[in-house]
Amino acid sequence: MQVEVFDNKTSLGQAAAQRAAKIIQEAIAQRDVAYLIAATGSSQFEFLDALVLQHIDWSKVVCFHLDEYLDLPATHPASFRRYLKERIVDRVQPRAFHFINSEATDIAEESRRVGELISKQTIDVAFVGVGENGHLAFNDPPADFDTAEPYIVVNLDQACRQQQVGEGWFKSVDEVPAQAISMSINQILKAHNILCIVPDQRKAEAVRNCFEFEVSPMRPASILQKHNGVTLYLDLESSSLLHVRAKY
User: What fold characterizes domain 2-234?
Assistant: First the structure.
């Protein structure tokens, strides 16, 4: 794992965007298409703002959705479909963006549908964050490290739901859906490259627990320690509890 620490979120986002653009450009040069996984949340704001300004032929990019709340309308301010449409699709018009329809009548069938789509492709890069509880996508602790299903229905724990309130997406925990469709841990790990973007002081404990302690389902993002293509992007605040930060 490569760890990079920046003075602020803007510099972090720009560096991660430049690395993402290089990966995407190389994939397009090799096979005329690039496949990526896009994350959401406030931690991704600066990164996505910088990414859409990079020199990328988005007509040759296919995107996959990382996770989505169950039964939340796509028009809701907290909807990840809305987030990704506004921050990626409307701005750069990629060739395709495979959204999760979490309002589908048959959620199991919807999970299979998007799972079959992603299973047919080689993912060049996944953009992910780390939750305050250490979650990766919506895989809250204890995460399922064993399932081979690309997408699964998960229960959201109290810490995860409280984070969504703290970030301003909902007014109260009671408004936060209790379940979501999430890309599984093993599907995320299939990406050739993973850019893990984690700014802010509120993530410092999770960063330390996931990347300085042993791998455990109780620290879902710790599984990234086992992937050879991970770059972890931190700012001074999110890296503040790391014992070896000074060497980066």
Answer: Rossmann fold (3.40.50)
